[in-house]
Amino acid sequence: MDSESKSKIAIVGAGYMGGGMAQVFALNGHPVSIFDLDTETTKMSFDRLIIESRSFEELGLFAPGSAEIISRNLSCGKNIEEVVAGADYIAEAVPEVIQIKNEVLTKISIAAKDDAIIASNTSAIPISKLSVFVTNPGRFLGVHWVNPAPFIPGVEIIPTAETSEEVLQYVEVLIGSLGKVTSRVSDVAGFIINRLQFALYKEAVTMFEEGVGTPQEIDAIVSNTFGFRLALFGPFAIADMAGLDVFVGAYKSLAEAYGERFAAPDSLAEKVKNGDFGLKTCGGFAGLDASKKDEIVAYRNRAYAALSQLKKDLGTPPGFPD
Ligand SMILES: NC(=O)c1ccc[n+]([C@@H]2O[C@H](COP(=O)([O-])OP(=O)(O)OC[C@H]3O[C@@H](n4cnc5c(N)ncnc54)[C@H](O)[C@@H]3O)[C@@H](O)[C@H]2O)c1
Question: Peptide bond before 321: cis, by omega within 30 degrees of 0?
């Protein structure tokens, strides 16, 4: 398969995620055929995607002419067999229910070309649990987009032990050509995004249940403090910049209050024991170049000030408490 020419795309399940992916592929010049539950639901999804694309264009979120490009490249199939026939890349975005994934992936496998790539958008099911439903599993992998698909840059690429390197590279080039930032991640439940996201959410709900804060208070704290930083840096870079010694000190208090689950992780404790406190001692986890410490700090300050201004300009989201 030649990833320079426009791959023929099939999308099965054209709801939030499948629909958003269809818009992105079509906008980038790929012929995209969608199928949802039946022909009527598929047509409704198609109409919704065209109307939404026009609205994105009017709002300046898509470039002028985008809706026209999308409607030219997008089509509806009558069934799974029809949409996947001749497709180079097939994305499955049906509900997160293993029986539905089984039924759909089995049908796709039977009807697709032998070398067609099949990608699941599952949020949390290990890809190896789904690959048993796919014939020739070397062509199967997870390609996990984040909602709203047209606007979130990152996409997780999740191979199983069986996924071929050729398929992986093809998919990375294909998804990268859409302007997305791909990251290869291990095939563990929830991958990276949802293992972290759901850990944070669970702790937030637990704090609400304990009466620590209302949902509004907790959301405000997160989005205006460390969540604000996360728009620019990952947890490792943040900890390296803050000081690993500071983190170990904080874990001590947390473990005293909440037990072992809040004890400092072994590799962190080990680093601090050996005098590695992160950026301030030219070490840390994130591989930051300590010779550029002043530039890193200057960038960080500039970026936070710009983000702060952007938040002010955007204002409180409609419907949210002030
Ligand atoms: N919503 C998110 O934020 C998000 C983010 C990342 C990944 N995901 C994952 O993406 C997948 C789809 O989620 P979604 O949010 O788009 O759900 P959704 O409910 O919006 O879309 C799923 C679509 O699949 C269709 N469908 C159901 N059974 C089908 C079948 N047998 N054949 C064809 N189509 C069928 C439904 O009619 C629906 O339109 C799930 O695995 C979900 O976990 C969701």
Answer: no
Atom index in ligand 1 nearest the CA of residue 103 equals 31
pLDDT band at 3 (very low <50, low <70, confident <90, very high): very low
For the chain, the average pLDDT equals: 97
Quick check: CB of 15 below 6 Å from ligand 1? yes
Token pair belonging to 120:
């699941």
Residue 225: pLDDT over 60: yes
- Rounded to whole angstroms, the Cα distance separating 12 from 298 reads 46
Name the helix (H) or strand (E) containing 313.
Answer: helix 293-314
203 C-alpha to ligand 1 centroid (Å): 26
What is the 236 CA–ligand 1 centroid distance (Å)? 32
pLDDT > 90? residue 265: yes
289-302 mean pLDDT: 96
The Cβ of residue 64 has, within 10 Å, a number of other Cβ atoms equal to 9
Q: What pLDDT digit, counting tens, does each position of 134-152 carry?
A: 999 999 999 999 999 999 9
With 0-12 CB in 10 A as exposed, 13-18 as middle and 19+ as buried, what is 196?
middle
Q: How do residues 175-200 score in pLDDT, each as one tens digit?
A: 999 999 999 999 999 999 999 999 99
Structural domains of the chain, ranges and CATH numbers in brackets: 9-184 (3.40.50.720), 194-314 (1.10.1040.10)
Average pLDDT over residues 159-183: 98
- Which numbered atom of ligand 1 lies nearest the CA of 124? 43
> Which ligand 1 atom sits closest to the C-alpha of 96?
41
- Which residues make Cβ contacts (< 8 Å) with residue 310, sequence separation at least 6? none
Atom from ligand 1 closest to the CA of residue 147: 3
> Is the beta carbon of 93 within 6 A of some atom in ligand 1?
yes
DSSP per residue, 49-88: HHHHHHHHHHTTSS-TTHHHHHHHHEEE-SSHHHHHTT-S
